[in-house]
User: Fold this.
Amino acid sequence: MRDFTLSIYIKLLKTMQDAGYTAQTFQDFLQNPLPKAVILRHDVDRTPKNALAFAQAESKMGLQASYYFRIVPVTFKPDIIKEIAALGHEIGYHYEDMDLCRGEIQCAHKSFTENLARLRELVSVNTICMHGSPLSKWDNKVLWKYFNYHDLSIVGEPYFDVDYHKVFYLSDTGRKWNNIGASIRDKVDTGFDINVDSSFHMIDLFKEGMLPDQIMINSHPHRWHNGYLRWFGEFTQQGIKNIVKRHIIRING
Ligand SMILES: [Zn+2]
Assistant:
């Protein structure tokens, strides 16, 4: 059976619910963390239609998630953003303003402020999350060495406002769960040593009660497909990307 399909994702959510976890948006978790919670975070890097399919599936199951949208034309689709918000999900800004401004801090701050305002014209936005392009030399989080996002009425950023010694972080970066070798920017200082080999394995771990009480699952809907051809395309493409990323990690030490 293939992994990283929408059907497997739905099965994962069902198992999570059966195991007694409540799904919380990131904002909700920051303001009112439940003792047994999963933050369903989605970084919408491209193919926003896939994000909409995820949002509809979650909403049918009575679940709320957080969707972080990039401002670039390939993902900034106002109709889809508003539709996902109308389903009860949280929308956040997946910022990459340091990349857009080639590392110029003042430009990046202006760009961030303007882009946040563009998103806020559509929906209310209270949390943000950096986009980590593996091939970029800029770290978008560096902006916050010079500025404070709370000044823009932002309540949180997952890379700064979560204690990952308490919250178990799982990311599908590289189309594997917590694939350290393929992850350049999407890393947290974790307090857990739990291997998750596949979504099937995660389902088993939920069933066996082997996962911590608070979890953040970061999944990128564009990496998950139900159609076989597109799934295969993503599979081979991601395989090549992982090889390239491993080389970058080796070069950077
Ligand atoms: Zn991203």
The chain has a mean pLDDT of 90. The two ends are 36 Å apart (CA to CA). The beta strands are 22-24, 37-44, 66-69, 90-95, 125-130, 168-171, 214-219. The first strand starts at residue 22 and ends at 24.
